[in-house]
Design a protein that fits this description.
The chain has 274 residues and is an all-alpha fold. The protein has helices spanning 3-29, 36-59, 68-89, 98-131, 140-162, 166-180, 185-189, 194-207, 212-272. α2 packs antiparallel against α3 (68-89) and α6 runs parallel beside α9.
């Protein structure tokens, strides 16, 4: 068993024990302490502040606050523990009232997006590794443009080099649109290669009617086609990794605001009560 596997098992056991201890504490002391909801609410706020602090930690890597990997591990397990804490704060009941319902919806979005993001952050890098090479997300459009220019140059240059317009006509009719097209996002995300295979089949079919010089150029065009498709995959998969953060992080801060407002309201009413 690998070291990472042992660590996950150990941490999962600690998480289960911590959640069980939390439930036991609730069952034993909640009936006896009229202010138990205050304690659970404050604990929930502290946990949410800690979870939100992870994003701040990522923006300040130069500070000696521990490794990002350690922060991520704590973020994940505290996040799961916060779910149990939230359920206890609600007394395992369905929320009622506009504010509580809105609060619960925001919490659910943060929780589900966090779980989904954890899954994506584990799976997508594996898929990117199989594609080979490292591609900077922001530079993909520029790389695509360069590939299209190289393909166009090859096709145009083939006319003078081979003394025939065959490859240029083939490129214009069958390949130009592929280099300029942006396949549907879902096709890229799922790794669909049907479009690539269709044009590669056409390239292979043309090879049977061309000379050696033309086949060399066709091979170069085919390699550019594969590279363009690889860039499309990288762009889609890296885009998913970035997109889920645009859900998780804003809703995390919204949850933090909800928590502070909720605490102020509760203590405000308590102070005003006779």
């Amino acid at each position: 068993m690998s070291r990472d596997r042992r660590r996950i098992i150990r941490n999962s056991i600690f998480l289960v024990l911590a959640c069980a201890g939390l439930v036991w504490t609730y069952q034993k002391f909640a009936p006896k302490l009229p202010n138990f909801d205050y304690f659970s609410g404050i604990a929930l706020l502290v946990a949410i502040i800690f979870l939100a602090a992870y994003n701040v930690r990522k923006k300040l890597p130069f500070l000696p606050l521990g490794s990002s990997e350690t922060w991520l591990q704590w973020h994940v397990y505290v996040g799961y523990f916060t779910f149990a804490l939230f359920a206890i704060h609600l007394k395992f009941k369905v929320p009622t009232g506009g504010f509580e319902i809105a609060f619960s919806i925001v919490f659910a979005i943060v929780m589900l997006s966090g779980i989904g993001g954890l899954f994506l952050s584990r799976q997508i890098p594996k898929r990117l590794t199989t594609l080979g090479g490292e591609v900077i997300f922001e530079r993909v459009p520029a790389y695509r443009h360069l590939l299209a220019e190289r393909a166009e140059k090859l096709a145009v240059g083939s006319t003078a080099e081979t003394q025939s317009p065959t490859l240029l006509e083939f490129y214009t009719k069958n390949l130009r649109d592929f280099f300029s097209a942006r396949p549907p996002f879902w096709m890229n995300a799922l790794g669909n290669t049907r479009g690539l295979q269709r044009v590669l089949v056409k390239v292979d079919d043309l090879k049977r009617y061309t000379n050696e010089q033309e086949r060399v150029i066709l091979d170069q065009l085919a390699e550019l086609l594969r590279e363009k498709r690889r860039l499309d995959f990288h762009y889609a998969l890296q885009g998913i990794l970035k997109a889920w953060l645009f859900v998780h992080i804003p809703f995390t801060y919204s949850l933090l605001i909800f928590s502070v407002v909720h605490l102020i309201i509760v203590f405000g009413f308590s102070a005003a009560a006779p």
